[in-house]
Amino acid sequence: MTRPAWYPLTDTDGRAIAESFRSLSADQVSRWIQVVLAGEDSFVAAARDSSPWNYLKEVYHSLDSISREVFRDSLIILLERLLTDGPDHLEDAAPLEYFFLLIGSVFRFPYPSTAPVSLLRTLGEKFVGQADPAGKIAWRALQALVALKYRGDSLFWEKLYTKGGSSFLGLTFSGLCLRDVQEGFDWLAEHGREPGVLAALFFRLPLLIQENGVALISRLLDKLGRHLSKQDTEELAYYAAQLKLRLAGDLRPSPFYEWLSEEVRVFADYLDPEMSQRHPSLARQIEALESLVAELHPVPESLKNPSWAIRVLFGLSSSIARARDLPQALLSKVLFELDDYITNAAKSASAMELRQQRLILLDRRFVLFGSDVLIAPPEIDRAGHSPSMFS
Amino acid sequence: MNFSDLISSHPSREDILSRLRDLADETGTNSQMRQNLLTEVRLKEDDWAELATIILAAPPTTGATRSSIRKWCLTRTLRGGPANLPSTVNFYRYISFSRVSECLAESGVVDSEDQGDALLFSHLGIEPSKFSATFRDTPLGRFLMWSTFGVSLATLIGEPSPPLEDVLCALGLTVNHPPYLLLEFTMPSGKAQIPTFCDAYAGDPWNRYFRSSAIGDAHGRTMPTDTCKRENGFPEVVHEVITAATLTSPLRYA
Known about the structure:
The structure holds 2 protein chains of 2 kinds. Chain A is mostly helical. Chain A folds into 3 domains: about 1-145; about 150-250; about 255-390. Helices cover about 65% and strands about 0% of the residues of chain A. Helix content of chain B is about 40%, strand content about 10%. Chain B has helices at about 5-10, 15-25, 30-40, 45-55, 60-75, 95-105, 115-125, 135, 155, 165-170, 195-200; strands spanning about 90-95, 145-150, 180-185, 220, 235-240, 250-254. In chain B, α2 (about 15-25) crosses α5, α4 packs antiparallel against α5 (about 60-75) and α6 (about 95-105) crosses α7. Chain B is globular.
């Protein structure tokens, strides 16, 4: 059997070859994407529990910039078709969650794009409140908007919640927090007695802390607690204490923490569509990163609890690892400084804990650079044996 | 009766074999799938008869054949029967950190992979007994789960810990998206099933390294990758997705 002309060439594992996308149109790629999402493509994944959208993400990242544009256009075509034809054909052909999660992931690289936002908004507004699969489209479209860090107006989110009901509680909270975290908490307080409010908050709290800092979120939680049921308040208090313990250890928040949180926010903003529009120059964003590097070296004197600071750095390294298309030399520099920073911090922290954190950074560095390792290989092995770190 | 027996007297035998051959020619994974299909012993004659009908009803393309097998498998998972295990046993599962985040987003627990990353990270190292009630109910995967057991923890994470690649290859996996988490958990008796062809091929993508177990086997056994030094693999079972409440040790990196 021969494959159709619109199919990319594949290697012996059935994986699409990046170069072959250069000759495909967006319409052709959209057909191929549907085949993959529908489980009709025989690609081989290394992990048993990988998924089609994970594979498509990997393919996307392997493409050159022109092919990526084509890939993105193909997703827009599918979104438009979904809007025109309704859910039936896509729901039958491909799991909706894979499709929308792919949208939320792809349109963040190599730079955040607002291209799918109006379509996602329209899909959400059109299908919200309807029975599945249409209702599911609305939910997944909003999920993609949150993944793209879309800061819609509060009326948009609230209207969708009113029509969509309780299953939209967490998404609405997330959407409002992206616009203004205080507004999000105020809105949640208004719905404090509804079932599901605790889960809506619980699963989003760690990222909110990472992006907004312990001090602000603690204040907002204190305020919110008064609007929750007794049982929810008790569990929230327990969880908040646990998170604080994880983030701040037994030390009071220090100026260093606030500074570091701010730097993480700067980096997070780099990935954000609106921020990117406000500062269209890539050079400007790179400057922010370079100043971060400068600040990290040498290690600030105010650092008192390295193990907790490293947790914040983990968040930073996550962001860095996702920003694959920044100039490699710059990424190399950032990661090298982080590595150096952790080595210094290791002198006064739990060896085991730091070992784990450091290994993550090293792993991420490998993920980032793949075979093109531009920086020196780590001097420790996977087991964490390093005479220089903990001696 | 296995599938091979059924189609030996099937009127469309050649057509079925031809379609399977075309599929097997595509990739090594598909070839292994065909071999497993022809040797699987834990499914029933009615099941095989239905599969033959479904394959023949699909358009004659490899994609359609693959999809029809996968969809047929989806309705027949967890049918291998309970694995014969000691009364108390700890199960272990390796999974990439980022994949757990993806699963959380897929199942709608979180809105994005970023949220999933932050949620998981905030729970690393916490004793399961101290998990909040909400987190205890959190599923740590999607659809089915595969795990190993009966190996000492020292084999998996001993001191010095073996290279991750050495452990994963014995499980039929390669290091794809580090870092990895090692989940250690328990399950009620009877939940762990002997893996069958359908458990292996209901998902997408298919994994190359799976082999069906034989009649009388107490449980499955992992199929190491081609280049793995541990040639025997580890004991293996399949089961429903576990929640954080079943963990017996903190979430930790492998």
